[in-house]
Amino acid sequence: MKKDCLSLKDLNRDEILSLIDKASDIKNRLKNGEDYKPLNGAILGMIFEKSSTRTRLSFESGMKRLGGDAIFLSSRDIQLGRGETIEDSARVISRYVDIIMIRTFEHSRIINFAQYSSVPVINALTDLLHPCQVLSDLMTIKEHFGKLDNLKIAFIGDGNNMANSWIYAAAILGLHLSVATPVDLSPSGVVVKEAMEIAQKTSAKIELTQIPYEAAVNADVIYTDVWASMGQEEQTLKKHSLLKHYQVNRELVKDANRDYIFMHCLPAHRQEEVAADIIDSEHSVVWDEAENRTYAQLAVIMKLLGRD
């Protein structure tokens, strides 16, 4: 039966940890110069209804490094949404490639596409969730601390797709996550409800607060994202007004753990959601985090294609 990766909720704890270990193995092999081509002959279709620097580069270069290939399809290149239904597009595109990644808007679009695709589908970002990013984040945290357990992770800012994905990850893995957002920009209520039910079984500690300092105190990881994501430009003024006290700066992090790391999925707007002297400091691991997108996504592709 075909499997997809549309949400971290599709995975259990062991599967997530296995993907992180596989991503690290892929990274080590490539860094050591091994002739490692497990994706030889595989073709990835990349559908971009939202543009991205890191998503395209990490998927496309990753496929080529492991012997596969990738075909880039922007909204200008295909009929999806321009007269051809999602269902028909899925049926057709999946006849030409072995696996598909989609970066789009409403989450319902990717669910609908996956239902009619005959090959695995990967969520490379929707307005609701960004599972590939969080997998690379988890990989980066484990690289830095050597573990995921017994750490406090603070997410500060907009309760967007990154916050939602982190809430699922924390619930499934049994992590301690504190999310600080304005009440009007809270994470998805559906995601929170489902995650809290999962957390009862995994002993995860998920805290929701409107006070950034409460999240940051004693944190090992401090995470933020842009205040207005792509496609939300009309909300920029409102969001900046609501989030002006949520900037990650030296005052906010002063009571985080001394060896805390700063994370951001990028692109970053310095002096908005994060002060320049934080993202450019010795605490920042954002460049490692960005690089690790390649390896985390390759681990997902290999798993879905049965080449792991």
Report on this model:
By secondary structure, this protein is of the alpha/beta class. Helix content is 43%, strand content 15%. It is built from 12 helices and 9 strands. It has helices at 13-31, 53-65, 86-93, 107-116, 131-145, 161-173, 189-202, 212-216, 236-243, 250-253, 276-279, 286-304; strands at residues 43-48, 69-74, 99-103, 121-125, 152-156, 176-180, 205-209, 221-224, 261-264. The strands form 2 sheets. A 5-stranded parallel sheet has the order 7-6-5-8-9. The chain has a 4-stranded parallel sheet with strand order 2-1-3-4, with helices on both faces. α7 (189-202) links the parallel β6 (176-180) and β7 (205-209). α2 packs across α12, α3 packs across α4 and α5 crosses α12 (286-304). The two termini are 17 Å apart.
